[in-house]
Each structure stands twice: as structure tokens, then as C-alpha cells.
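Onboarding guide, step 5: your first structure request.
Type a short instruction followed by the sequence, for example:

Predict the 3D structure of this protein.
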Amino acid sequence: MADEAAPHGASMARVGFRLGLIGVVGGRLRYGGALGAVPRIRVVGIADPEMRAAQAWSKTLPLRPPAYSSLSAMLEAGLDLEGLVLSSPLPLRSAALTAALEIGLPVITEFPLSANHVEEAEIVAAFEARNLVLMPTLPRRFDPDFVQMLQSMEAGSIGVLRQARCDWSLPSGDSEEKKTGVESESYGWRTLLELAARQAIDVGRWWFGEAVSVSADIGPEQGAIAVRTSATAKALSNPVATIIVTHDKGQFTHRFALSRSLQASERYTVLGSLGHLELATTSGNATHSSVSTVTLHRIGRASARLRPQDTGGVTKGLSGMLTHFTECAIAGSTPRVVIEDALAASEIFEAAVRSSTDRCRISLPLLRR
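The system replies with C-alpha cells like these:
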């Protein structure tokens, strides 16, 4: 990996790390304007079959990179790519990853990598064999406030951990369309839920250890249709999915609801024997919120606002994640978050879907059907 990465460092010194973006709907949901805000990154091309959407996103980025109708067209354009940001729909991901492998490009990607578990394992093994960086998009692992929460738990600030709860409010399709110009059907309930749930589930596993079992009640797609048409304000605030995960250190309950708000919000509450910790975030897009507060509530004491101390040089969320990916691709080093973290979150979400369908608790690890 280090041998292949040497040219990247030289190029970055001249013009920045040259990235290609694949997938507009998932990409804009995930990154918004963050890709244009990282000094070390230079976006040089966007690939998506929906050219109008790709061109619209291009206008929001520095240098207005050209849009291409496919990854192959972008690769043939001679852009001297040094890495890929992969946000395309699941059915297209394995082909994009195979193309990246063939030309030796590091990739930061949404997950799962494929709907086929055997193919997914083969892709991971192929990247490892070529010593290429394959990093999952897990921005909360790079957010100082989320790191602060974990450090406070580990320091015993709330005593023995008991349980935790996560509440997400997700912008509806109409809200995302107003912000991005992409038709609201692209932001259906299942799309938003999958992107958000895997992130929240990873936070639970990061804080509470390996998952043991899952119980879930996931509302149907027509919930999103109701939001876009005639649902009342009261109905909009009701949760439409609940995923309960039992971990090594306790139970983590995740609740998700659609909202007409243009902003996403998340609230995490972790209960312990001595009190509880709260993390509230607002002002973001459908899958990442950017303004956070962490509060410690100790039994018999006044509440205290916590500010990140030594978080290991973590830079805020998406920017920190993208910077870290760039550094790993250049140095040929192993990322702080690895693809196994993403695969574990995907397995838990798959178990949640099974639980909701079969109306029963699902034990982990899964027995593949």
C-alpha cells in the first residue's frame, strides 16, 4: 500500500487529493457541502446516471467539477483520480468497487458493499490483498462530542451503564427535495432509514460493545407517502421505526421518525447507576447533524455541560472522516474505522429487518438464509 501511495502525496502537495464522487442522492444526503469544505480535497468529477442531479451538485462545489453519466465515463476522462467517494445505490456498489480495484484506487464507501454476502467478503479480501484502503462512512466516530460521550462513560461519570436511547428526526422527502433539487421519491422512507439506522447502530456498538440480539418494529413505506401528502403535524412526530439492540453492556433503543423539518436531529441518552449523559445534535442533513451539546446529569448534583477535552486530534464529523481517509490513502495506513465495523452494523440492521418481518427477537450473529 505504501508503495502505491507515494505518488498521491506528491500530487496532494500540488493541487490537493483528487477525488471522484459516485452517486448523487446518497452523496448529497451524506456529505452535503462537506466535500467542498476540506482543504486537502479536490473533487474533480461526479458520476451518476441522473446527469441533471449530478450537474446541480457540481454547482455547489469548488471548481464545479464535470459530471459524467457513469463511473466508466469518469474513469476514461483522464482525471488522474487518487480516490473515490462511493455513495451509489446498493445494486451498483460492487461494480464500482471492482472498477476501483482494477485501477488501484482507495475508496471511502457507504455500506453494505453488496447485497450478496459472499461477493461482499470477496471484495473485502481483494482490497486487503492489494493493500488498498477501503474505509466505511462512519462520521460519528470522528465527532468530538461523540468521542466525549464515550470517554465520560469509560471514566465512570455515570457509574455502571444500564441502557441507552437514541431518537432521530429525519427530514421527509419533500424537505430533502427543497434543499437538493433531487426528486423526493429518491428520499423514500427506506432510503433515509437505512442510512440513519446503520449510523445509529454503529454508535450503539461503539459505546456498548458487541450486539447479542435485536427486536424491531419498522413501519412500511407508505408512512413516507403519508408524510408527503396529508399526515397531521401530530402524526409527523410519531416514531415510525423502533430498533432495540441488546449489547454486551446493556440495551440500546433506537427510534426514528420522519419530519417536515429541513434539519435532521439526533438525541442520545445513556443511563447509568449514578446519573445519565445526554447528547443532542441539530442543524444537519438527513444523515448527519453538525451542532452538538453534551450534558452530564448526576444524581443529587447540578447538570454540567461537557466540552471535548483530549479526543485524540479528532476533527468534526464529516470533515474529520474525509481528512482521515485522505491521510490513510496517502500514507498507506489502516483507517481508525475499518470495514468490519460497517459489516457488523449492517448485520445488526439486517437482523432488525428480519425481526420486524417475523415478529420475533433475532439472535446474533446471524445464521445466513
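Each response can be followed by summary notes, for example: Residues 189-208 form the longest helix (20 residues).
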